[in-house]
């Protein structure tokens, strides 16, 4: 098992309160074990799953949380799409309710990742064309509806540096994304309190040796950034370069309603997307989120040469630390018993959600 002290060969006990009561064992190398016990995965960018999109409001988030639990995600941030104010208010009200308690068999919804509408109209990616300039009064209203833990915005848009400073002062994480901003814009945003980058490399200005762009700002200065390791959004070579440059780069799925579902058409916010050949795209071919699950993300990282412990940290420990959540994302006494059990091929066998054992049908 991968504990805060390193790899141990031993046993872990779960208390009646759903937390880890004791860990016993001897230090060991990862090696070729028959079974691996790892911290549960924490996904900070989830738009949907199981045929349901977060923007559908109602009980959509609970369905999405139960879908991703089957793939080892034990906690997540429900992620919105750029949308008109009325639609955002409706979904945030529903997410406020969903985040108050964890339903049996579901991942814990830690809060909301507000991805847009405060992005650059020239770098929408798969976001609908409803981008607007940020205003703190509006954001504070949204925060009264749901616990917004993370906001993605474009720093070069007028007034956004002031918003970054205020959100940072309030303890909200700010990520830079869907941006046409320069290297200098990225550096200034980090100096004003921004803390990360949304789906690094995608929907942002790229790296050029005379114009380093937003990617250059991330590689040169970031402590944290998120990246989609589905092997479609980012080439493995670029992934490895980012992991060498950014000490605590963590991985997300950016999953859509198509995750865990067969090929076909699904909703992503107000848009229709098509799942085919392992990806999700708009009608014009633009990548539109992913079908990735966190267990597959782990396998992909290991496949490109990332050691298992490092891969696990990028799916559990680093996202937990980024949010300032110190009782998840790690196997240690007193932490929540959010645990995944995998076989020697890194196929899921069991998932524990705050101590609740989720038996997997196909395990």
UniProtKB/TrEMBL annotation:
InterPro entries (alphabetical): Amidohydro-rel, GlcNAc_6-P_deAcase, Metal-dep_hydrolase_composite, Metal_Hydrolase
EC number: 3.5.1.25
Keyword Metal-binding tagged: yes
UniProt xrefs under SUPFAM superfamilies: Composite domain of metallo-dependent hydrolases, Metallo-dependent hydrolases
Keywords noted in UniProt: Carbohydrate metabolism, Hydrolase, Metal-binding
Protein known as: N-acetylglucosamine-6-phosphate deacetylase
Gene3D superfamilies to which the protein is assigned, alphabetical: Metal-dependent hydrolases, Urease, subunit C, domain 1
Signal peptide: none
Boundaries of every Amidohydrolase-related domain copy: 36-350
Top-level division of the source organism's lineage: Bacteria
Gene: nagA
Pfam families found in the cross-reference section: Amidohydro_1
UniProt GO MF annotations: N-acetylglucosamine-6-phosphate deacetylase activity
CDD domains named in the record: NagA
Family statement: Belongs to the metallo-dependent hydrolases superfamily. NagA family.
């Amino acid at each position: 098992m991968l504990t805060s002290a390193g790899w141990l060969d031993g046993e872990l006990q779960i208390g009646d309160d759903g937390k880890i009561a004791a860990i016993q064992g001897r230090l060991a190398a990862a090696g070729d074990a028959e079974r691996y016990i790892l911290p549960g995965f924490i996904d900070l960018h989830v738009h949907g799953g199981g045929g349901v999109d977060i923007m559908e409001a109602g009980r959509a988030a609970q369905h999405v949380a139960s879908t991703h639990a089957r793939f080892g995600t034990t906690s997540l941030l429900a992620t919105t799409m750029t949308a008109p104010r009325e639609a955002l208010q409706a979904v945030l009200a529903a997410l406020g309710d969903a985040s108050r308690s964890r339903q049996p068999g579901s991942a814990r919804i830690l809060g909301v990742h507000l991805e847009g509408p405060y992005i650059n109209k020239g770098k929408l990616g798969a976001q609908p064309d409803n981008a607007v300039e940020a205003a703190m009064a509006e954001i504070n209203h949204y925060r009264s509806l749901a616990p917004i833990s993370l906001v993605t915005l474009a720093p070069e848009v007028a007034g956004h540096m002031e918003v970054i400073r205020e959100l940072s002062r309030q303890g909200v994480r700010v990520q830079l994304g869907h941006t046409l901003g320069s290297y200098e814009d990225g550096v200034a945003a980090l100096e004003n309190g921004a803390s990360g980058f949304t789906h690094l490399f995608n929907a942002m200005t790229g790296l050029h040796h005379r114009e380093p762009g937003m990617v250059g700002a991330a590689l040169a200065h970031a402590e944290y950034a998120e990246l989609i390791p589905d092997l479609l959004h980012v080439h493995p070579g670029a992934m490895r370069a980012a992991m060498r440059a950014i000490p605590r780069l963590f991985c997300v799925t950016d999953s859509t309603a198509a995750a865990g579902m067969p090929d076909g058409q699904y909703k992503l916010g107000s848009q229709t997307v098509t799942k085919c050949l392992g990806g999700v795209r708009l009608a014009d071919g633009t990548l539109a989120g992913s079908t990735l699950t966190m267990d597959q993300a782990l396998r992909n990282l290991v496949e490109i040469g990332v050691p298992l412990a490092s891969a696990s940290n990028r799916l559990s420990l680093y996202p937990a630390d980024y949010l300032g959540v110190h009782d998840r994302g790690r196997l240690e006494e007193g932490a929540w018993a959010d645990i995944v059990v995998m076989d020697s091929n890194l196929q899921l066998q069991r998932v524990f959600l705050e101590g609740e054992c989720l038996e997997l049908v196909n395990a």
